[in-house]
Specification:
It is globular, with a radius of gyration of 26 Å. 44% of the residues lie in helices and 19% in strands. The chain has a 5-stranded mixed beta sheet with strand order 11-10-12-9-13. It has a 3-stranded parallel beta sheet with strand order 5-1-6. It is of the alpha/beta class.
Length: 282
């Protein structure tokens, strides 16, 4: 083989290698684009016109059952209205609140929409929508126990919901309530069970979201027997939780939520469920 032939062969090999690299790169790009699209469940949801949302169906007033068993609440109204705009029907799925992120990422539900507080820890597991409601953690006690501050809980037993923001902030802000209460708080699957124990005297206080506390106590026949105490827990924000891969789904929901904030729909729903004194985010 002459030097010229060797040069031609080398050039041909180079061309072949370049073509293979281009083809491989093209296939990689196409595969990644296809994977991105298929991993975003918006396309499946849009086609089926159905989405499954997980909630704790005892969480008054965000999502709960009325006397006839119908699911109602602020978040129920807001989610139904949001997906109606998108031409999609919501299928509500009652879940164990302590396993909500696992159920979401396992694909058993498509979103978490139920007074779901945005936090740094939760952001590691899910992608949040824009915030749409504010709240804080409060202490609920019985008036007869004469507990007027967090300090009055010294040596007394506290209750809270397992997997809730109350549980997280109780541990995080140790100088607010934790330093006073007796031992480890009693954990409950749902807050209605905690209220039963409070009334029976098995616990002396419940750490709970202010929205739940205000609405729940207000609608009790013996509401005058309860006291709601604010003690310095930070203001938190509620958002909708999505899988991190569901970028398009989150964008579609955010677009509708922003419209509701602009056209007064959000405000009207907040006033319906919380009153004008606590209308949440504007």
């Amino acid at each position: 083989m002459t030097a010229n032939d060797k040069k031609k062969a080398f050039i041909n090999i180079g061309i072949i290698v370049l073509i293979i690299a281009i083809i491989a790169g093209g296939w990689t790009y196409f595969a990644n684009k296809t994977k991105t699209k298929s991993s975003d469940h918006w396309y499946r949801i849009k086609k089926s016109k159905k989405i499954k949302i997980g909630l704790d169906d005892t969480f008054i007033p965000m999502g709960f059952r009325n006397k006839s068993g119908k699911l109602i609440g602020f978040d129920v109204d807001l989610a139904n209205a949001t997906f109606k705009k998108l031409g999609i029907k919501v299928e509500w799925e009652p879940i164990n609140w302590s396993t909500k992120e696992q159920l979401l990422n396992d694909g058993q539900i498509d979103a978490i929409w139920n007074g779901y507080t945005i936090s740094a820890a939760r952001k590691k597991k899910v992608a949040f929508s824009i915030p749409y409601k504010k709240g804080t953690q409060v202490l609920v006690t019985l008036s007869k126990d004469k507990i007027n501050s967090f300090a009055d809980m010294k040596g007394k037993t506290l209750g809270l919901q397992n997997g809730s923001t109350a549980q997280t902030q109780f541990q995080q802000y140790k100088n607010l309530l934790k330093k006073y209460v007796k031992g480890t708080p009693q954990k409950y699957d749902t807050f209605d069970k905690a209220f039963m124990d409070l009334k029976a005297g098995r616990i002396q206080g419940i750490l709970v979201d202010s929205m739940y506390a205000g609405y729940y106590v207000k609608h009790l026949s013996d509401s005058q027997d309860y006291k709601i105490i604010y003690g310095g827990y930070p203001t938190d924000e509620n958002g909708v939780g999505f899988r991190k891969s569901d970028v398009k789904l989150r964008e579609e929901v955010n677009t509708v939520l922003k419209k509701f904030q602009q056209n007064g729909k959000m405000k009207s729903l907040q006033e319906k469920w919380f009153g004008k004194a606590d209308s949440g985010l504007k």
